Every structure is written in C-alpha cells, then in structure tokens.
Amino acid sequence: MAALHDVQIPIAADETELKQCQEADKDNFEYSRRAQWLRAAVLGANDGLVSVSSLMMGVGAVQKDVKAMILIGFAGLIAGACSMAIGEFVSVYSQLDIEIAQMKRATRMRDAEQNKGESEKEQLPNPMQAAIASALAFSLGAMVPLIAASFIRDHKTRLGAVVAAVSLALLVFGGVGAKLGRTPVVRSCARVLVGGWTAMAITFWLTKLIGSNGL
C-alpha cells in the first residue's frame, strides 16, 4: 500500500504543475494581446495631445484669434487621425503577412490538424481594428486642447489653459498606460509629461521667432 501511495503522489503533483503552466501560458498570451492594443491606444492618445496642442501653441505664439487656434487644431486632429490610422493599418498588415507566412511554413513542416490551424488564425492581428483604435485614440487626445481653448477669450489665459489641460491629460494617460503595462507609474508619467512640454515649448518659441522676423 505504501508503494502505491508513493507512485500516486508525483503523478498528482505533475498534473497540478501542468495545469499551472497552462494557466500561466494563457495569462501571458492574454497579457501580450492586451499590450498590443495598449501600445496603439497610448501612442495614439499621446500623439493627439502633443501634436495638436503643439500646433495650437505655435499658432498662439503669433495669432491671438481663437478661431485660428481652433481651426489649426481641428485640421491637426483630422490629419493626425488619418495618419495614425493609415500608419497603424500598414504596420499591422505587414505583421499579419509575416505571421501568416510563418504559420504556413510551420503547417507544412508538421502537417498540423485543421482545427488547430483555425484556432491559430483567430489569434492573428486585425489591421482594421488597430487602425480604428489608433484613429479614435488620437482624436480623443486631440480633443483635450481643443476643448480647453474653445471657451476662453483672453489670449494668455487660453494658452495657459491649453498647457494645463494637456499636462493633466498626459499624466492621466501616462498613469493608465503604466498601470496596465505593469511599468513604474512615476517614471512613465514624468517621461510623457516632459516630452509634451518640450514639444509645445519648441513649437511655440520657434514659431514666435519666425513670426517676429516677418518670415
């Protein structure tokens, strides 16, 4: 009887370890898929914030008219969203082509079963979904400086409101991205905040310099 117990114990342990490994593999796969969408969303939102706010700050350096700032901001939103969507579509489509080619080579080598091939196909990246997600994320970020500037008539106050609103949004997006991506929150927030400030400052002062020289 003791011998039988000795034989059964390692088998149970092996089955438990196997289940744990399978669950860990599933968690890692889900995290990898989430990281792909997170990358597209965070990059799109940050690009929308920084690009459109920098454009508006540049125009605000030489023009006090609120309509000019809103118009250039809206144009930047449309152009940036289209650019993000097309760029993400092309990038993910290239990745899709590579993964499909790899699947075909692996299938020919191991003569995989049809059901398994269909299961793997469902896990492939979707270029259209990635393009739409990037465009929406960019538009969401770009709306922040547009809304901040829309209801303020004083020129200096309007510029300050844009900087404040964009700074807060950068901190929020940086924090959310860090939490979901399991990276240090403070470092991530500081990185995106300093980057956004730098882009807005460079655009503002260079545009002001060019405008003051009459070019």
Secondary structure tally, helices? 6
N→C terminal distance? 96 Å
- Percentage of residues in DSSP E strands: under 5%
SSE-based structural type: mainly alpha
What level of helicity do the residues show? over 70%
Overall 3D form: elongated
Q: How many whole angstroms does the radius of gyration measure?
A: 25 Å
| Element-level helix/strand string | HHHHHH
Oligomeric status of the shown chains? single chain
Biggest β-sheet description: none
Poorly predicted parts: 1-13
Number of domains: 1
Number of beta strands = 0
Can you give the mean pLDDT?
Answer: 78
Question: What tags apply to this protein structure?
Answer:
90% helix; Ccc1_fam; iron; disordered N terminus; mainly alpha; iron ion sequestering activity; 215 residues; vacuole; 0% strand; single chain
Q: Can you offer a commentary on this structure?
A:
The protein is an all-alpha fold and 215 residues long. It has one domain. It contains six helices and no strands. Helix 1 runs antiparallel to helix 2, helix 1 runs antiparallel to helix 5 and helix 2 packs antiparallel against helix 4. The longest helix is centred in the N-terminal third of the chain and has 61 residues. It is elongated and about 70 Å long. The chain starts with a helix and ends with a helix. The N terminus is likely disordered. Keywords: Ion transport, Iron, Iron transport, Membrane, Transmembrane, Transmembrane helix, Transport, Vacuole. It catalyses: Fe(2+)(in) = Fe(2+)(out). GO terms for molecular function: iron ion sequestering activity; iron ion transmembrane transporter activity; manganese ion transmembrane transporter activity. Belongs to the CCC1 family. This is Vacuolar iron transporter.
